Amino acid sequence: MTSSFFPPQRTLMGPGPSDVSPRVLGAVSRPTIGHLDPLFVQLMDEIKGLLQYAFQTENELTIPVSAPGSAGMEACFVNLVSPGDTVIVCQNGVFGGRMKENVERCGGIAVMVEDAWGEPVSVDKTRAAFAEHPEATLLAFVHAETSTGVKSDAAALCALAKENNALSIVDTVTSLAGIELKVDAWGADAVYSGTQKCLSCIPGISPVTFSPAAVERIQNREHKVQSWFLDMQLVMGYWGANTKRAYHHTAPVNDLYALHESLVMLQEEGLENAHARHQRNHEALVAGLEAMGLSMAVAAEHRLPQLNAVNIPEGVDDAAVRTALLQDFNLEIGAGLGALAGKTWRIGLMGYASSPRNVVTCLTALEAVLS
Ligand code: PLP
Fold first, then answer.
1. Contact 146 CB / ligand 1 (< 6 Å)
2. Which end of the chain is more exposed for a tag (fewer CB within 10 A), N or C?
3. Residue of 69, 19, 94 lying closest to 339 (CA atoms)
């Protein structure tokens, strides 16, 4: 007989998932109701409004995709890229590489703007790419590169797309609720995120928002969207306003209770207060790490407060340290990804996990393991 699974109580300070608030975990266990129940439809409307607040947008098409961040990414690409389209893709870490893959799988041509891992996307290089490729119809970039802990200038990049009559696709999986993100003020067109980072919700849902210009492009497509599940025109039959809320797929009812609760918590705290909390705890962590003789991998002006990349000191066994933290302190921190594997640790301070308590827990445990 296989027995029930009871996970230990870890402290999640890696690149995500982050610690889920007990309020959110409580919400998941509420009674399941039908996904077309009038009360559930009311909850869906509230989630849309709360997501508009989180994204700082009035976009009508603002919904949670019933699948993880990667599905939100695909939803943006499959709906906006048609075969033969040229898309400028900025890559300064792992996730820009996935964008390229998405463009090519949609039959588009990806023009890459590459920057070193640990550096932000260069606005100048992106401008030069537009000059060389005036036919580009889209610009895609990652606002907060989780693989490196770097923030890029999303406002400037979205403005650059507009100047060149292109739409922007912006990855905000790690930025939403952790740092400033102003979809309407910046003029971002297709924006996707995840629930498992600074929203401190359970993993597996991807909030997305599409501007009126993006919706117009979707409605005027000549080719059918290659994915049935992620075709926004079909999804809108369930999530859209002024529709009968017809069955499209069975919504993850309890997961959406969780998302609603996490968004209610964000609204209670206020976006600006949430950003200030992330910044405060980040500064405390950095001060503590530097006092221990460790150094940060990213220049101060480009650091993400919610994802701290730390250089692994010479001669220290990366995996042994992370294993000791997990086994002896129930504390998870992240390994370096891709080009930074073995060179950095990634310490998350995301959402509910961004607390003075976690800063102290992490510094104390790391000091004990390293000494
Ligand atoms: N984009 C970024 C920047 C991410 O950090 C992640 C996940 O960590 C994703 C996309 C993919 O999200 P998911 O793992 O939820 O599919």
1. yes
2. N
3. 94
Q: Which tokens belong to 32? A: 């399941």
Phi-psi region of 270 (alpha: psi -120 to 50; beta: other; left: phi over 0): left
The model scores a pTM over 0.90: yes
DSSP 8-state secondary structure symbol assigned to residue 225: P
Q: Are strands 138-142 and 167-171 parallel, antiparallel or unpaired?
A: parallel
ipTM over 0.90: yes
CA–CA dist 35, 48 (Å, integer) = 15
CA 102 to ligand 1 centroid distance, Å:
14
Q: What angle do CA 210, 246, 41 make, to 5 degrees?
A: 75
Alpha-carbon distance of 145 to 166, in angstroms, equals 22
- Residue 351 DSSP one-character state: G
Nearest ligand 1 atom to the CA of 15 is 8
pLDDT in tens, 68-80: 999 999 999 999 9
d(CA 142, CA 164): 19
